[in-house]
Amino acid sequence: MPDIGQNAMANLKWNEVRPPHPVFVGDTIYADSEMLSKRESKSRPLAGIVHVQTRGLNQNGAVVIILKRATMVYKGDFAPQRKLLPTPKNENDESV
Hints:
It is a single chain. By secondary structure, this protein is mostly beta strands. The protein has a single domain (2-77), classed as Hotdog Thioesterase (Thiol Ester Dehydrase, Chain A). The protein is built from one helix and four strands. The chain has a four-stranded antiparallel beta sheet with strand order 1-4-3-2.
């Protein structure tokens, strides 16, 4: 998930994983995350630990999974530069 994962160094743990509703072939799954807590990493000065609760919902809004997870993330400007979106091609560029 780009909300947390794009700056992640490592996923540390998942717990309290519950699937309250089944998922079927053809379902579209959406997710949202709520940050529960954060702290500085004791071993890596460029990182912190965030604890989040993530929910997965199907196209009808039914919650299909709930889990809590801990992720080590880069702090502020220490995150590596990632190209998240493609660069638009020049109209005159024939290599499209």
